[in-house]
Amino acid sequence: MLLFAFGVVGALFSVVAAMDPASAQLANDSAPFGTPPSVASFLVLALAFMLPAAAGTMLWRRASRSARAGRT
After folding, report:
1. Tens of each residue's pLDDT in the chain, 72 residues
2. What is the C-alpha separation between 49 and 28, in angstroms, rounded?
């Protein structure tokens, strides 16, 4: 469940950052008014966060399935 939640929250923040990349730029002392990261980089980050979400979903479903099988 924790892995799933981590992935979903990270993917959500990445998608929101892709919608407004200028607001999502973190503090950068070397170039404080530099260009923000590209939308593609945020979408790649969102895909990277979806991997743990998918793994967490798979583990969660497997655990619930085994718990149901043990009850019968």
Report:
1. 888 899 999 999 888 888 887 777 666 677 777 777 788 888 898 999 999 999 999 998 888 888 888 765
2. 23
pTM attached to this predicted model: 0.69
26 found inside a domain: no
Indicate whether 62 belongs to any domain. yes
The residue written with tokens 């590209």 in the block is: 38
HEC profile of 22-71: HHHCCCCCCCCCCCCCCHHHHHHHHHHHHHHHHHHHHHHHHHHHHHHHHH
Question: How many whole angstroms separate alpha carbon 27 and alpha carbon 10?
Answer: 19
Q: Please tell me the total count of domains within the chain.
A: 1
Structural domain contains residue 14: yes
